[in-house]
């Protein structure tokens, strides 16, 4: 089963940048999207010509902001939206789709913001999201994917020292949040299968960062330990254009 996750930085914008051809080329069973920046009806309209996929979207109350979607060739057993916590459920950040062997969660983790104004909220989110995943795990193994808005280790961003504890996405508090996920057993599939390979999934639009590969790895597939033997390939598809992020991939041998 081939899974792809992609922060598209606006579904309507990416549709104008060869999105449909990229989807054909990736040949994925499930595509999880983050930062759709559209209401549910706008997501449906943008993807109106897409054939062969069931479409599920979760939009923020604030228009043109956040939002997630799952495009699945096979119809999931069930689909659930949000975490059931009012404080977190206003921004369309979580969808969970249940398949026979596992539950797939796509997430767009809140950014701590300029001057780290939202860092305290982000810490609460991270704690509550881990609890949410552990509750799902009581039913089935979990695969979680998306823009987690944190680089986990020095190897995961081009310039760790000047960003550490100064930039959103590389504070110790955010690193601790991802540590808590991995310490709870969730496997960083890219690191598990690729060791210390250096590859990034996001680049600033400023100063030609993508061309210079001054990037960050902030998009992930994590899996429950019960699926470890089924993890066959994890990759970062940094040749795919259209967003400031590139897609990330996980293949499962089920």
Question: What key attributes describe this structure?
Answer:
254 residues, alpha+beta, Deoxyribonuclease I, Chain A, six-stranded mixed β-sheet
What would you note in describing this structure?
- The chain has 254 residues and is of the alpha+beta class.
- The protein has one domain (2-252): Deoxyribonuclease I, Chain A.
- Helix content is 25%, strand content 25%.
- The chain contains 8 helices and 14 strands.
- The chain has helices at 11-14, 19-26, 40-46, 119-137, 160-163, 172-183, 189-194, 209-212, and strands spanning 2-7, 30-34, 54-58, 68-72, 78-81, 94-98, 103-108, 142-147, 187-188, 202-203, 215-216, 219-223, 231-236, 248-252.
- The strands form 3 sheets. It has a 6-stranded mixed beta sheet with strand order 3-4-2-1-14-13.
- Strand 7, helix 4 and strand 8 (142-147) form a beta-alpha-beta unit.
- Helix 4 runs parallel beside helix 6.
- The protein is globular, with a radius of gyration of 17 Å.
- The model has no long low-confidence stretch (mean pLDDT 98).
Largest sheet: 6 strands, mixed
Distance between the termini: 7 Å
* Radius of gyration (Å): 17 Å
Report the total helices: 8
Helix share bin? 25-40%
Compute the number of strand runs.
Answer: 14
Return the string of H and E elements: EHHEHEEEEEHEHHEHEHEEEE
Point out poorly predicted stretches.
none
CATH top level label: Alpha Beta
């Amino acid at each position: 089963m081939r899974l792809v996750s992609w922060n598209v930085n606006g579904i309507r914008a990416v549709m104008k940048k060869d999105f449909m051809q990229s989807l054909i080329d990736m040949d994925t069973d499930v595509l999880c999207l983050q930062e759709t920046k559209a209401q549910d009806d706008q997501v449906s309209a943008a993807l109106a010509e897409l054939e062969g996929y069931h479409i599920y979207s979760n939009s923020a109350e604030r228009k043109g902001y956040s939002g997630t979607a799952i495009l699945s060739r096979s119809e999931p057993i069930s689909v659930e939206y949000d975490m059931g916590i009012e404080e977190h459920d206003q921004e369309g950040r979580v969808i969970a789709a249940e398949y026979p062997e596992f539950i797939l969660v796509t997430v767009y983790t809140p950014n701590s913001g300029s001057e780290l104004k939202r860092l305290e909220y982000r810490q609460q989110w991270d704690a509550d999201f881990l609890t949410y995943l552990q509750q799902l795990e009581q039913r089935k193994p979990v695969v979680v994917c998306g823009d987690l808005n944190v680089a986990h280790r020095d190897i995961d961003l081009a310039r760790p020292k000047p960003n550490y504890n100064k930039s959103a996405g590389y504070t110790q508090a955010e690193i601790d949040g991802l540590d808590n996920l991995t310490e709870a057993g969730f496997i960083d599939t890219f690191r598990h299968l690729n060791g210390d390979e250096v590859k990034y999934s996001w680049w600033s639009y400023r100063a030609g960062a993508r061309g210079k590969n001054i990037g960050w790895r902030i998009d992930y597939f994590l899996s429950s330990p019960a699926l470890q033997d089924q993890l066959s390939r994890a990759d970062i598809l940094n040749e795919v254009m259209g967003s400031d992020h590139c897609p990330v991939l996980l293949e499962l041998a089920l």
